[in-house]
Amino acid sequence: EKEGIEKRKVQEKTRLRALSEKLAGISINISAKSGDNGKLFGSITKDDIAQAIKNESGVAIDKHDLLLEEPIKVIGAYFIDAKLKSDKFPEEVTQTVKLKIWVVEG
Questions:
Q1: Cα separation of 20 and 83, whole Å?
Q2: Distance from C-alpha of 47 to C-alpha of 55, rounded to nearest angstrom
Q3: At 103, is the pLDDT very low, low, confident or very high (cuts 50, 70, 90)?
Q4: 3-class secondary structure per residue, 10-66
Q5: For 13-26, what is each residue's pLDDT tens digit?
Q6: Spatial separation of the C-alpha atoms in residues 30 and 15, rounded to whole Å
Q7: Cβ atoms 106, 32 nearer than 8 A
């Protein structure tokens, strides 16, 4: 039984590593309206980022797993860490990935 659990943990680690490599290799684009100085009308939140990731990559990431201190308020490129978690072993099997987010005029 214990060997089976350890084997499943290894499989989950491998799956998360592959998923993180896929996400690290893409750029997520989010269009937003802005003023003359690049300042957004409103802001980009974790919800917006999670939805953009799902739309562009097909991968669903919980907004609570995105490490964003405060909403994005200016056009530009951002690197945001996301903590991917195993569905079966969420406390034990995790993988952090750095996402590239482009906030562009749109």
A1: 9
A2: 12
A3: very high
A4: HHHHHHHHHHHHHHHCCEEEEEECECCCCEEEEEECHHHHHHHHHHHHCCCCCHHHE
A5: 999 999 999 999 99
A6: 27
A7: yes
